[in-house]
Write a structure and sequence with these properties.
Layout lengths: L3 H19 L4 H4 L9 H14 L4 E8 L5 E7 L10 E7 L7 H18 L3 H9 E6 L4 H7 L57 H11 L5 E9 L3 E4 L11 H19 L4 E4 H4 L7 H8 L3 E7 L14 H23 L8 H27 L1
Parallel strand pairs: 3-4, 3-5, 5-8, 6-7
Antiparallel strand pairs: 1-2, 2-4, 6-8
Helix pairs in contact: 1-12, 4-11, 8-11
């Protein structure tokens, strides 16, 4: 019969393992419904909870204000570099177009997956976050997003909510035509009532300027810039101008196609990869193009589901599969970016991570068996 000391040790070890698996898990976060669309006040409250319950992993930052003086806030995910080296960074934003509700839903899903993996001691994620800080803005166009929730007549509002220029009666600017990237040249309108109105000058809108100031002052840190939109099932790479080609165009295509291939494996959904003029339409002033012109090597726009049946009114029952496939695509790109920039410290394979999780399950199972045995003697 085991000694009482051994029994106490096993019981304590079992309790500690259970505690470590649940460490940082907040009921408020995990009970949040990630398969429905949420108004801005609920998203803001959720962001506060994410930070409060994960202080070692998450910090928040207000990096600008909207035209209507609402905070533009991001969540930063990161762990200290073991060697004390300066870290790199990745940018992910959602909700630059108000009516594309699946985009903020994805950013919340993405955060949930990061938190879940971290709490499960995912080796790959830990290594990634020790080298790269991850900046996530769930809703960039806060004013427009809130306006789209007003009633059915505003549901398909796309732009910001800034006041119209003199002589025009329509509010708002298309923020994804307002960045300083071949601004105002193709695929835009100078009519303030148009959905593609580009504003009076590059970064004239406080939302675009907030991103420009934050990312632009840290450009040497950023390896990848991802902006999430809908719809059309596309992975767009620079540039929107048909006569300009990114210097790493072939690599961007290859990495994008690898992501699309992984996405298709889940639900069979096809995502086309290419520049906007190739597979959609020419445009200028996008944040994607601005990031690449700035020198960030990997810059993509994800256009999530669907291909026209529902458009920007994607039903809530498609949130889960849409976010799952987008998560696979995003992590495919991020894994490539990590391995390219840290070739001597590549991420462990998924199989290795699975082995770590399996080992933990074996230990738990063994402990459970021992406890049952001890209880029966």
């Amino acid at each position: 019969m085991p000694s009482s000391g051994l029994l106490v040790f096993l019981l304590v070890l079992h309790a500690n393992l259970k505690f470590s698996l649940s460490l940082g898990v907040s009921e408020r976060i995990w009970n949040y419904n990630y398969t429905r669309y949420h108004p801005m006040d609920e998203i803001s409250s959720w962001m506060d909870s994410v930070e409060e319950q994960n202080p070692k992993l998450v910090t928040s930052l207000v990096y600008g204000q909207t035209f209507e003086k609402r905070d533009i806030k991001l969540l930063k995910f990161g762990l200290p570099d073991p060697g004390g080296l300066e870290k790199k960074a990745v940018w992910v934003d959602c909700g630059i177009h108000a009516r594309e509700w699946i985009a903020p839903a994805f950013c919340q899903w993405f955060v949930k997956e990061i938190l879940q993996s971290y709490n499960e001691s995912d080796v790959r994620l830990t290594k990634f976050l020790q080298k790269i800080d991850l900046y996530v803005t769930p809703v960039l166009n806060v004013d427009g997003y809130m306006f789209s929730w007003t009633n059915q007549s505003t549901r398909l509002w796309r732009k910001s909510r800034s006041l119209p220029p003199q002589g025009c009666g329509c509010h708002g600017v298309d923020l994804n035509r307002n960045f300083n990237a071949n601004w105002g040249t193709v695929g835009v309108s100078t009519d303030c009532c148009s959905n593609t109105y580009c504003g009076v000058s590059p970064a004239s809108e406080p939302e675009a300027k907030a991103v420009t100031d934050f990312v632009g002052t840290r450009v040497e840190q950023f390896l990848c810039y991802l902006t999430i939109h809908s719809s059309g099932q596309l992975i767009l790479l620079p540039y929107g101008h048909p006569q300009i080609t990114a210097p790493n165009y072939e690599e961007l295509v290859s990495v994008g196609k690898a992501a699309a291939s992984e996405m298709k494996k889940l639900y069979g959904m096809e995502y086309r990869v290419g520049t906007s003029p190739q597979i959609l339409y020419a445009n200028s002033g996008s944040s994607r193009d601005w990031a690449r012109l700035l020198g960030i090597p990997f810059s993509y726009t994800f256009e999530l589901r669907d291909k026209g049946e529902f458009g920007h009114l994607l039903p809530e029952d498609q949130i889960k599969p849409a976010c799952e496939e987008a998560y696979v695509g995003v992590t495919s790109i991020l894994s490539y970016v990590y391995d390219k920039n840290f070739p001597n410290d590549k991420l462990p394979t998924a199989a290795a991570t699975a082995c770590v999780h399996a080992t933990g399950l074996i230990v738990m199972t063994t402990l459970a068996t021992l406890l049952v045995t001890l209880g029966s003697v």
